[in-house]
Amino acid sequence: MKTLQRSMIAGLVVMIAGCDQNSPPADANMTTEVGVKTLQSASVTLDSQLAGRVTGSMTSDVRPQVDGIIQKRLFTEGDEVKAGQVLYQIDPASYQASYDQAVAQLKNAQALVKSSKLKAERYAALVKDNGVSRQDADDAQATYQQNVASVDQYRAAVESARINLNYTQIKAPISGRIGISSVTPGALVTASQTTALATIRALDPIYVDLTQSSVQLLKLRRQQASLQQNKDGVPVTVKLEDGTTYDHPGKLELTEVSVDEATGTVTLRAIFPNPQHELLPGMYVRASVTNGVKSDAILAPQQGITRDAKGNATALVVDKENKVESRDVVTDRVMGNNWLITSGLNQGDKLIVEGTAKVQAGMQVKAVDVSSGDNAPTSEGH
To answer: Which terminus, N or C, of the chain has the lesser number of Cβ atoms within 10 Å?
Structure first.
């Protein structure tokens, strides 16, 4: 019995050994397959996302320039008004009387000039024949000159009275949309009052004042030096408070020449057409300011860029010898499904986008080109 057991064990060992000999040997040199994306330069439009407030291109307070009682309000609140349009009528009675008095005084002075001139001329002729004394002739000439001066004085008084009479019609200083009236007919107004009767705002075109930190502004200006600029100005688009995009694009008009010491920000002013008055003063908007076009941008798929605990970005690429190489990269911003690369990657690099977890620097790999999805250069702010 023991002899039989030994024979069976020996046979089993032989069978196991035979199976091991028939098994294919492991390939110690098998290479790992990774998916790569060959990077190409592309032309992309870069922009900045900024917050801003809408403000009227012109704002004017309507104020009285003479004292009096408001007789009429000659506009509808909220309507469009034109420059020079009469908005209020102040009771003109006292100003009309002052004007009429000034005109009468002027006519009287002009009559005196005429008579004193004739008298001075007669005395000048008589003094040659000793018909009147030299003193009388001089007095007549002086009276004439005084009357001439009085005419100029009364003419100025007439002009002043005419101006005050015209001021009883309070007119719109600018064209625009007028707001709510602070007074009603019967109210007493004065030239020195601090409260405006109404406010007019010009809404087309309209301004959007944007704020940007001084650090961002310096970065933007350095960036713009290497970008292709629009010859017609810097385009600006805005999104309204409800998230919709405003239909009419604007352009950057100016940058403030000083930095706000309290906030460290600079104000940028953009101008927009506003035919439907959709933009109103005081609105909060998000603006996209076009910085320029970068013609040789390198866009890397996001799945090919990893970051360490400190936020430093790295990428794995396959070199000419099909070995994995680790690169430190600097990213600028996200554009669609890609990172815009500032440095670390170049055109033609084979960026590993699939299988990064299976490889490490120095490994021999087999690179297979893959489609990285939508890598179209999309303009996105920073």
So the answer is: N
Cα–Cα distance measured from residue 81 to residue 85, given in angstroms and rounded to the nearest whole number: 7
Q: How many structural domains are present in the chain?
A: 4
Q: How many CB atoms lie within 10 A of CB 30?
A: 9
| Helix segments in 23-180, DSSP class H | 93-126, 134-166
What letters, b where the CB count within 10 A reaches 16 and e where it falls short, cover 215-240? eebeebeebeeebeeeeeebbbbbee
What CATH number should be reported for the domain holding residue 363? 2.40.420.20
Contact between 367 and 34 under an 8 Å Cβ cutoff? The reply is: yes
Q: Is residue 12 part of a domain?
A: no
Task: Point out which residues pair with 289 in neighbouring strands.
Answer: 48, 236
Over pLDDT 70: what percentage of the chain? 81
pLDDT of residue 153: 86
Say whether both 123 and 241 belong to one domain: no
CA 264 → CA 212, 213, 254, 261, 297, distances in Å? Answer: 9, 6, 18, 5, 31
Mean pLDDT of 134-160: 80
